[in-house]
Each structure stands twice: as structure tokens, then as C-alpha cells.
Design a protein that fits this description.
Four copies of one chain form a homotetramer.
Chain A (H helix, E strand, L loop, with lengths): L3 E2 L4 E6 L5 E7 L9 H11 L16 E3 L3 E2 L2 E2 L4 E6 L21 H8 L15 H19 L2 E9 L2 E2 L9 H4 L9 H17 L5 E8 L13 H10 L6 E4 L10 H4 L3 E4 L2 E4 L7 E2 L2 E2 L4 E7 L8 E5 L5 E5 L9 H25 L3
Helix pairs in contact in A: 1-3, 1-8, 3-8, 6-8
């Protein structure tokens, strides 16, 4: 535990990279929502390995199947079980991992915790685990859009030193999807792609930042004092593999302003209570205030590299290990739908929670 | 909801700044722990307003009372209820807040959410709410120390541009407590204090960074895939008022290294599996690896300033508001015990969860 | 754990019979509900010891205080903390209990579980623990009545062999409250009172059945498959001290009918889908169907009797124990508000959960 | 919601009778337990339709597949996903149910709640939903047996008026399984079988009682005050389809004894604290006391009968409905493994919870 996330729109993911498959059960999806595999597959395709020259080449079609919870194309209020079968399993490629801990992976800590591990392909710690999240996130995004007009959009804003120039208020999905690195700044995207390809050539990897915006969230979502909207978003993001932090609105740079400089003044605009700046990042006191929700998540460079590294084996002897086979130079393009999924799951959960308390 | 935090060591806080008091109920505290008010009060004193010239001058003794859950000085496995009475209530000082929303406070969002608010002193959004957290955190810290030898220590590492030089591996509690700003770098501390005092004089405020280290956590704490240790720490920190982010280990700066540079090599040291660097921040794959757990939390500048600011009133008209009365130029010294408390609550919860899964 | 009950209208009770007091925190109460102590005290008075000649004579005023969660007489969406101070503490009366386990009490099992116990007055296992439940239940009943027109009404229907004749469809609160045993059948009530008084004279005790009806619950409350409405009611009732069972609708006697005889036919009545019999007890498939919800709960005779009984002491030696001091010949009159409270807590929780899933 | 059960050994079931299949995800199963499909299938076979002449003839092999959570024949601490495919789907047999509500089924209440339903074979309300419970229960039973020496055993003790004579202290699994009705009293079993077969011939159905014993549970399991062991067992049982009640130990008959008669005296026996009677049913104050845990559950007669019955259609018009096709005269033989499964799930959850609180 815990492989569940959410209070009222609650998902439970299961599956290892090597085994029968991976999947998710959604409990709490409202009934009468039109839902078929066609709503899910596009986001899985954005998450899929082998989608471009700059991501891991593992060959998986990642075709989703809805096993329960719908009837005649609509949700019926019962649990939605979705599954993707594993296809590209090559346990032999991982045989060295049976006896050695990969640096900055979870091999050692899983053994420390469970006393056992599935060393084939990373087992549960494989990025394949996020398939269930992305599938459930697609359902969450559909609910947010149809029932609340809320849009969740993520994009790559930085790869190593290369920073994109993006206006979070206006960036569009089509711009994000216009290139394989999912950065809406075309010039920066080109440089990012070149950098990632050079890393692939070197057998090394890079990290960067995924930024996420949530538009049209109404004022009132978020549950003080512990389930503040930003607290749940932070947890959601840090639950993704390879993330090292989170910041919302002014984030870490908030500390360079005084209170007078930092505060967001309120003004009436078009009959609505608005703020004229948005250092709060769309959330005040843990509750959405109607402004753009805007946060940033750093992803460390992928830990598997094609270079010899110092490590320890399962018999607690010093040794070395060199990555082999499929090489993933950068997780960022595939992380974009993961971030969207987790953000959408948090948002739809809070939307339902807000409904619950209004008599 | 939710005013509860934790799965097995679960706290529920209650109370507004103006009302009968504030408090906390701890459910799940192991029995037979020696516990009296003397274990709790010191951390409340570190959190207390009026403790020095650089924090808010509100006059509260914040004397804690244990109402249940102990017998003859020991816990008995039943809920521990602790309470602090409110003393310094001056509702008249807040009368203007009855009709105006304070910028970058939660006045507006609470009304948006609940349709009603206690405008006296911020009500539930007051920092007084953290009294319950700090009281419960003191219990958590005692368990961690006695049962696991784990130490949780936070300190101020930056105020606005002033950065301290601190070795997280060796910094001691006595160094943190040696000055009123709770920064273990004496030279930096002096500058910080001067800056905060100048802000007080100007009626303005500053923010900064609280850093936290957790020593001796054994390998194996953390519950993938959603309740990763760093995910729960992130949520804990973002649930504190005024926080804008979280980073662990290499954090946001991880993106400037390649995978080869960033990975933490494993080596056998003194018969233990150790890493020779700690960019992971003591957690890999969501599970502690036995290294120092190390994270950083930015606190924005306090929102209440003694300057006229643009805002909106409860009748949705543009207006201005100027802070009056007690002025808090910097929350950081008081945030230190809050950060420790939330970190300790996360850790003890995961310690108990780890016990639960071992047959 | 767990001292919390409910998912969205969640209560946490605390307190032992000897200590600072007992109380409850309600998390999830909808805002803008008018609420003062005057809404709570009447049910506490119905639960109070010393209310009549047939219940325990412990002298407690059980005066409730609302410490948080309301402002100017209305709930504000924050946790409602309520407390009752302990008054009649006579630890010396329990000194023999420090060394001996009372038969059919929880003294031995608490030691087996926690390795320690508060032996004064039963500690947490005292019926005083239900004060928090009854206080929270009073809030739940008010919400049910005001927001949904739902009434929760319990009464004593049997004491030992004495059975009352009561029409669950029409029985009124005033009839229940017309006598000290809370049985709406006046003739049976008189016999019950006489029996209980004779038991008091003998230093013995009796049990019986509390029956509960819930009127006007709309169709649609209940969360299959595990949180079926009757499942949560069963848990709620079995969580009360001294209960030994639960049955709903036809209950245990359902087994004497064939399917054809037992089924409840549907008919349209006054434009509504109704059943012409109600062996289902108002719940089908775990969801309310709009009919009267009707269930029965047996309470065993009070375990403390004024006779010498065989038992074991804390040093695991055979011994005997004779109850002394205050004697409670029958818990049933005081159990009535407890049953109502727990039923109301289940219902309001499911009412809120139903709201949460409707977009 | 909620389709999850348990706190630390947490199962989530999914699936309708018509659809891709049914399944369960177990989260929190301790690692390093030997587990293959061979541990699960026997209990599914005991639950399977078509297993004998006295249960529903639906043709399903109910072959279970473990999709995740094990590696080389052992659990690894990750979620265990198990699935059974649906085979005998005949939606055409249910076409009349598309427009009419079956009496004493959940057709109407599902529409009232969700506004939509899968009318094929009962959808989620089908007994097929219990496959996931029984599969997870088999894992729970294995843990209880291997790690704690605890045995969970259920049997049919009454069918309509026919009562079996069974000694709960000594009854063996082989006796239960020695006949198709799963009643260990051979003579009574024969009469029960004859009765059920006559009901089948008449197109009618009967109910009865399933009794359950739990042996060797150590003192100390159960979590006061709300998650008392008997409270969780009651909820578990009432969450099963067709159950109408629950009683533990002396149950409803407890009310016919005085306190003096009813109390269970403590005596030292073989160096252990024991009770010489067991009216408590193995649980005192919500915590196991080391005696036999013993409870009884009434199952109403199956609602589907081959007779014309009054009902209402989906357009709210009075009509009649006659059951067609496969007829189930008695659920009791198949209910036995369901009761065992739910009891085992409660027990293993509390076993883990008890571990969590011991430092």
C-alpha cells in the first residue's frame, strides 16, 4: 500500500512491467458519462514508448480494454476496470539486474522494504505503472471538460539548460503536440530535440521541467486544512517516478519579493472577483480562486545510462553495472500526459468533494 | 474536510483563532509511551507568537492540556486529545475584515467555498490552526526518537536573498536554537534578523526557505506507488500556510546534470549499502534508502502588510485595505517547528505502515 | 484506531470516563447550518446517567460546549469540536478493578491488546464514550430533518421476555418519551419498568431490543457493494457497547418464508414506485428504496452485577469479584439516543456521498 | 463507491455479470507469501454455479488468473490483480428485465441511484460480484493459517425450518464438504437437500442460516471504538447479497438471560486466561479474547422465482413479471465460501492493524 489515489474519484493501479499486464480500477466515476476506449487511447498513445526517436524504444502498442463499468457506451456508476496487456517482455535483458542494484533506481529500496523484488524490467517501479494513471486521467479530463469546462494542459518548458518561452495563459494543446518533445516554443523544442538526440548517442540522459496549467477551475475547490488543492497536487506530482519537486504560482521565487510586492490585488473584472496578478497560482488558502492554476515539476535525468557505474550486488559486494539494451534519453515527452493525468485526477476528486458538502 | 492527516498515526485538528480554542486528536498513537504536557510544550513555545522581536506580537501563552489518552503518564492506545485555549482575542481589530477580502489571504476563497466565514483573525486559516499539528508532531518526534532513533531537524536556510551556509549532515538542534531566526549560520542569522527588523519597521514582510533533515531513517519506509515518502512529505509541506513549493535532494537543480552525473553510486560502507552521493535525498522509488532525508520548502512573505492595497469587498465592489494592529514581518522562525511537526507525522505514519506489512 | 466513523460526515470521538472529559470532532458538516448547544443538549440529556430510577445513578450533568466550527450561530464548514467535562469521577470506587478483570467487560482484552489500561470506571470502554456519538448524532439528525425531511426514531421494543406492540409506521417521538423506559407501548412499558426495578433490587441486570425506524429516506442512498446502507447500519450498531446483533426488515425470520412469499411486490402508489410489503426493510441491493427503513438491535444485560463472580486477576490468578457502588440494571433507555445517533450518522454520510456522485 | 473493503489488507472488486469479466485487486498483501492460482481456485469452485443439483445451473468455469503481484510463485508486496472471465452470458435471457424491475432485487434502486443500469443478468448486483471477494478471501485465509494458525470455517446450519445440530467447537472442514448443501449434520443435510430440490421443482426458493467459526484468533485483534471486530464482521456479512442480519455469541437470545446468568466467568486454564462459557462469542469490548469467534448470518430466500409477480416497469406502470431460464432455489451452499472469505478479510486486516500499533 498504497496503490490507490483519490477520495471520491478513487483509482487503484496494479501491474508490473513483466507479468500479465497493467491496469487500473476507477471507483466513484459518476454514472451516465459517455465512455469508450476511444476516450482513453489517445492519452495512452502520448505516453507510449516508441512514439518518437527521443524516447525509449520499447515496443508496446498499449491497447486499452475497458472490462467493466460501462453499458451501451455509458458509465453506470460501478467500478471501471481497464487493462493493457504486456507485450514486449524480455526478461533475459534484465538478467544482470537479478543480482545487482541499479544506481538511483528503486531496486535496493524495494528489497529493503519487501525482502523480494521482481527484477524484470523494474517490476512495479517501471514507468509502465503509469499506464493505469494515464487511462484514469483520461476519464477525469473528460469529466472536467464536459461537466465543468475545465481544461488541463501540460507541456515541457525546460530541458537541461534550454528554456522555452511560453505564455501559460494562452498556450494551446495543438502547440504542445506540434513536436515530439511536447514543448510549445518551436525554436526551443528544436534545440531540446537535438540535445536529447545527442544524449541518446552518448548513452546518457537529461531531465527538465514539465509545466501544467488548469483553466476555468471555479472558485471553491480544495479542502482545507490538509487536503489543500496545492497539497494534493504536490503529492500527485511527487508520486510520479523521477520527480524531485513541485512549485505553484510564484513558487521558490516568491521569496525574493516582499509581502507588498508579492500580494495579488483583488479587482472586479467583468463582474467577477479577480486578481490582477497571479502569484498565488490560482489557489489561496488551499482553495481555487478562479484564476489560472499553474505549477511546475522537475524531472531528474533518467537513471538508466549506457555507462559503467559503481554499485552493489544482492550479496552486498561492491561491483559495477552498465545499462544495456533499450535506452531512454529523456522521459519528459512521455511525462506530459502523466502530469496531466495526475492533475486531472486531483481536480475531479475535489470537484466531487465540493459537491458533497453543499446541501 | 479534510482536517485529518495520516493513515495509521492519524491526527485531526480543530479550532479557529477566535473561539473556544484550538486542538488536535491523535488516533493511533502506540500505547505505553511516556507522555505528559512537558513533552509537548517546548515545541509549542517555539511556535508561539511573541517569542521574539521578529515575529507576530500576538499574546498567547499557548499552554497545552492533554484531555485524554494517557493514564499515569503513559499513552494507553486511546485517542489523545490536546487543547490550547484562545486568550488574545480581539475581534474588534478585525472588524474591517468582515466586509473586505484581504489580498493573498483565503478570505475570498472561503466565502466562495463555504458561503460563510469567520472573519475574526482569519478563523480557521489563521496560523493558530498549526498548534494542533505542532502538538501532535511533538508526540511523533518522541516516538521516532525513542523507538527508531530518528531525528527530525528543520532550520531557516534563506531569508529573501540572504543565504546561510549549513552542512545538513552535521547541523545540530542547539545551533538552530541559538538565535531567534532559527538559522544555524550565525553570520547569516544576524543579517536575516536585521532584514526582518527593517521589514517590521517598514510594515512589510519577507519570506524564505526552511530546510529539513531527517537522520537515521532506516531503509524501507514509504509506500509506493502513491504514498511515496517524498509524495507524502510534499503534501505535508504544501498543507502548511504560506508554502509555495517543495524539493527533495537535488530538487529543481537536478535538471542541470546528465543521468551519469546525477546518479548516486552504491558502495558498501561499514557493512551497509550506502550511496556515495545523495542527490536522491534519502529516498529512491518512494522508499527511504538509509541516507539523510533532506528537503527544502519556500515560504512566501506574510500577506498582511501595513500598506494600503487594492481589494474587493463582500458586496463585490472595488476598495482598498490597509493592515492594522499586530504585524508579522516573517513567519520563518515559527515555521521551523511546523515543518518538523509535519515531517515527523509523515515519518511515524510510514514507520507504523511498514510494521503492518511484515508478518 | 479507529476512533473515527463516516466517510464524508466524519466524526472522531475521544475521552475516557476518568480524565479531562469526553468529546467529538465532526469533520465534513455542511456550512450555514444553524447550530448551538441547544441543538445538542436534549439528546445528551436522554443519554445521561441519573435521568430516572431505572438507569445508572452516576451524577453527571453532561453539559456540552461547542468549541469550534460555528460563527454567529451557524456552522462554517470547519471542524466542529464539542466537549463534555467529566464531573463524577470516583477512582477509588474502582480500585479493585486495578487488579482484577471484570467478567464480560473489556478489561482483559484491552490489556491483551494494548498492554496497559485505564482501569478507572472502564476508561475508554465506559458508556461515557458514546457522549461524543450522541452529540454528533444530534447534528446529523438536524441536517437530515432540515435538508431532507428524514426522521430517525428509536424505541425499546423488548426487555427480557416483555415484548411491546408497536406500529413502526406510525410510532411518534412523544410516545417514546412518555415513559422512562422509552417504550411507546404504555402497558408493556409499565411491566418493563417493574422488571428493571426488581433487577435493581436484586443487584442484577437485563437486556432487550432497541428498534429503529427511519422515515422519508429518499430512494438512492447507499453505496454498493461494500458500503451498502444496511452494512453500514450494522457496523454502526455493533460498534455500540453491549450490542450482540442486528437485523433489518424480515431479518432472521426471513428464512421461514419461500422466495415467492418473501418478495416485496412493486406497485405504483400516488405516482411513486412503492412496495406493498416491506420485508426488505427499506433497502434493496444496499440502496434505500423509499420505504420505511426498519431494523432491530439486541443489547445484552449489563455486565456489572452486584454478585460475586469468578474471574482472574492481572497476575493471572483465579479470584472472585463483586460489583460495588453504582449499579446500572438496564442500558436500554439510554441506548435509544445512541441508536438514533449512529443511524443518523450513517444516513447523513450516505446523503452526502450520494450528492458527490451526481454531476 | 465503495467497491473497496479493508484498511491495510484492502480489496477492490470490479465487474458485472455481463461484460469482460469480474476481478479483484488486493492492496497490502504482505510480501514473500507463496501464492499461485492453485491457492485460489478451490474456493472459487465452492462458490461456482452449477456445482451441484441444488444451486443455479449457470455454466461458468470461473477460472482465476493472477495478473500481477507475484514473482516466481511468491507475493512481492505489490497489488495482486486477479480476474475471472465471463463465459455464460445470455443477455437475451434478460431482455424482459430491460423494461421491468424484478421484485426484491436491486433493479429499481440502482436506477433510483445511478439513473442507469446494466440490466443483463443483474449487472453489478449479480452474485458474480462475489468472485473477487472469494478470490481475495482465499489469500486472506492462507495468511491467517500460515502466519497465525487461525482457521475460518463456515457451514449451513439451517434451511427454512430444518435445523442442524453442530458443535461449533469441533466441526471440521471435511464434514462441511461431505455433502452438497455444506451442512455438517448429515441427517439434517439430507432433509435440506430434499427441501431445496422440492423448491426447485416448484420454481420457488428458500433461505437459511450460515454459521461461521474462527479458531485460534489470538487475544488483541479489533480496533475500538468503531472498528470493533464484531462491527467489522457485521458490516462484512451485511455487505453480502441476500443477508438480513448478524448475531455473534449469544446474539438475539442474550436478552433472555440476566447479567449474572449471561456473564462469561474468567478462569486460568492451561496457563491461559480463558472464559468458561462463551456468550461473548470470542470478542469483548470489540477485541478478540482468545475464545472461539462464532457468529450467524441469515440469508433470505433467493428473489428470482418462476412465478408471476406484481411489479412496475421502467415507465412507472404496473405490470407483472415471471422469472425465466436458470433458477437458483437456494444460495446457501455457495454462500458458505462467501462468508468465510469476508470473515477472513476482516481478520487478516485486523491482524495487520494490530501489528501496526506495536512498537
Amino acid at each position: 500500500m498504497s496503490n490507490s489515489f483519490g477520495e471520491l474519484f478513487r483509482i487503484t493501479t496494479w501491474g508490473e512491467s513483466h507479468g500479465g499486464g497493467v491496469g487500473v480500477v476507477i471507483d466513484g466515476c459518476p454514472p451516465r458519462l459517455e465512455l469508450t476506449e476511444a476516450d482513453i487511447q489517445p492519452d495512452l498513445d502520448r505516453r507510449r514508448p516508441g512514439q518518437s526517436s527521443i524516447v525509449t524504444p520499447r515496443k508496446e502498442s498499449d491497447t486499452v480494454q475497458i472490462l467493466s463499468g460501462t453499458f451501451e457506451g455509458k458509465t453506470i456508476g460501478t467500478p471501471i476496470s481497464m487493462m493493457v496487456k504486456n507485450e514486449d517482455m524480455r526478461p533475459e535483458a534484465y538478467s544482470e539486474m537479478a543480482s545487482k542494484y541499479r544506481p538511483s533506481h528503486a531496486d535496493y529500496t524495494y528489497v529493503a522494504k519487501y525482502g523480494i523484488r521482481n527484477w524484470q524490467g523494474g517490476g512495479r517501479t517501471s514507468a509502465r505503472e503509469t499506464i493505469g494513471r494515464v487511462a484514469a486521467g483520461a476519464v477525469a479530463k473528460k469529466i472536467l471538460k464536459l461537466s465543468f469546462g475545465v481544461e488541463v494542459l501540460a507541456f515541457v518548458s525546460q530541458v537541461k539548460e534550454i528554456k522555452a518561452t511560453v505564455d501559460p495563459a494562452t498556450v494551446q494543446f495543438s502547440e504542445v503536440e506540434s513536436n515530439i518533445v511536447r514543448c510549445p516554443d518551436a525554436a526551443a523544442a528544436q534545440k531540446m530535440i537535438e540535445l536529447i538526440e545527442s544524449m541518446r548517442a552518448k548513452g546518457d540522459s537529461v531531465g527538465g521541467i514539465v509545466e501544467c496549467v488548469i483553466r476555468n477551475a471555479p472558485p471553491g475547490w480544495g479542502e482545507p486544512v490538509f487536503d489543500r488543492l496545492e497539497a494534493d497536487l504536490a503529492k500527485a506530482m511527487l508520486s510520479l517516478p523521477a520527480t524531485k519537486g513541485f512549485e505553484i504560482g510564484s513558487g521558490f521565487s516568491s521569496i525574493y519579493l516582499t509581502g507588498t510586492e508579492h500580494n495579488d490585488p483583488f479587482r472586479m473584472i467583468d463582474g467577477k472577483v479577480r486578481t490582477t496578478t497571479n502569484r498565488s497560482g490560482g489557489i489561496q488558502g488551499g482553495i481555487s480562486n478562479g484564476e489560472l492554476i499553474h505549477f511546475r515539476v522537475p524531472f531528474k535525468p533518467v537513471a538508466t545510462v549506457m555507462h559503467e557505474q559503481e554499485t552493489v550486488d544482492v550479496e552486498n559486494k561492491n561491483t559495477t553495472l552498465k545499462g544495456r539494451g533499450r535506452h531512454d534519453p529523456c522521459v519528459l515527452p512521455r511525462a506530459v500526459p502523466m502530469v496531466e493525468a495526475m492533475a486531472a485526477l486531483v481536480l475531479v476528486d475535489h470537484a466531487l468533494r465540493q459537491k458533497a458538502q453543499c446541501l
